[in-house]
Specification:
The chain is built from 8 helices and 2 strands, in the order ααααααββαα. It has 216 residues and is mainly α. A two-stranded antiparallel sheet has the order 1-2. Strand 1 and strand 2 form a beta hairpin. Helix 2 runs parallel beside helix 4. The longest helix is centred in the middle third of the chain and has 40 residues. 32% of the residues are buried. The model has no long low-confidence stretch (mean pLDDT 95).
Length: 216
């Protein structure tokens, strides 16, 4: 049942409503971040099949400049797709913490959630997706600079030994900057099924975020 306070403001009953009503600036910014993340993933979905088709399956060519450049650009697209999912997860996590802390009147928790959300929004704004995608020579390096120490899952698949191998953004980055593309990285890039649809939902749609936590 909808309840209005003396000032004509709707009262929140759930964690989701606490964020939406009591912290509207963060609610709106988090929703916009998820909208942008979804758009990034949709853009990557159009390009990934094309770039994957151009990956060399000839091991003798794996260390050529052309083959490496193609691989790095494919990994850049996979990383941007993974970054989109990361944005969604982080926005949901810290909005949940904001709603929970708001309900508990935990001022330290509220400030931490706000700080982490602001940091997430700042990271998103640093990633110039169009420029990074179009830059075939230094786009991956631009993505690295924009993300700083941020890490997230990118892909998993069978490596050159036939074993399942999982790669995060920092794993890929460390390998490329350390020893260059290894046989294992090549194999996983070739064997890992590229995504065919977004893996992003809405904001605070979980059962926990929508259960009754307040009574008036």
């Amino acid at each position: 049942m909808l309840t209005i306070n003396d000032h004509g403001k709707r009262l929140p009953y759930t964690y989701k409503e606490i964020v939406e009503i009591d912290y509207p600036d963060f609610w709106n910014a988090a929703n916009e971040s998820i909208r942008r993340a979804y758009a990034v993933q949709e853009m990557m979905l159009e390009m990934l099949p094309v770039f994957h088709d151009h990956l060399s399956g000839d091991t003798e060519k794996w260390q050529s400049e052309k083959a490496i450049n193609t691989l790095v650009n494919y990994l850049k697209l996979r990383s941007l797709y993974g970054f989109g999912h990361y944005i969604w997860e982080e926005a949901n996590q810290w909005c949940h913490e904001l709603g929970k802390s708001g309900n508990d009147v935990d001022y330290d928790g509220i400030e931490k959630a706000k700080t982490d959300l602001i940091a997430l929004f700042e990271t998103i704004n640093k990633v110039d997706v169009i420029d990074i995608v179009q830059d075939m020579d230094t786009g991956f390096q631009k993505l690295e600079k924009a993300l700083g120490s941020t890490d997230f899952h990118v892909m998993k698949g069978l490596n050159s030994e036939g074993l399942l191998s999982s790669w995060s953004f920092r794993d890929i980055l460390g390998t490329l900057e350390g020893v260059g593309p290894t046989d294992n990285l090549w194999a996983v890039a070739l064997n890992s099924a590229f995504p065919t649809e977004p893996n992003i939902g809405g904001l605070m749609e979980s059962e926990e975020d929508n259960k009754l936590v307040r009574l008036y």
